[in-house]
Task: structure prediction
Amino acid sequence: MVATIERRFGQVNRLPGSIEWLTDNGSCYTAHETGRFARQIGLIPRTTPVESPQSNGMAEAFVRTLKRDYARVSPRPDAQAVINQLPRWFEHYNSVHPHKVLGYRSPRQFIDRKTREALSAI
Result:
């Protein structure tokens, strides 16, 4: 957990602020020790609503897409190679990868368009 946080945000004792950590309600995430440790390193543990298929469905769809469109088609000789590629995969997923539900636009393209539409309506 510490390695992941530090790779993404910097040293845990120098985080820019509190970071929400969203998980499902699996026992490994809801264990008291896990929550306590997460809080100690600056995370705010949050869980999806119980019996919320939408929340779990979105997370599972993301993982499925990441595996299908990135992990399975990229060189990955070991776990560290995969971890090293994650930032590029996330950037591509958010900036370039078309999403059917967003009209085959990336999330950033979708948000940019919605923002421009909202501003032009003012």
Observations:
- The helical segments are 2-9, 27-30, 32-40, 53-69, 79-95, 107-120.
- Residues 71 and 77 are 11 Å apart (CA to CA).
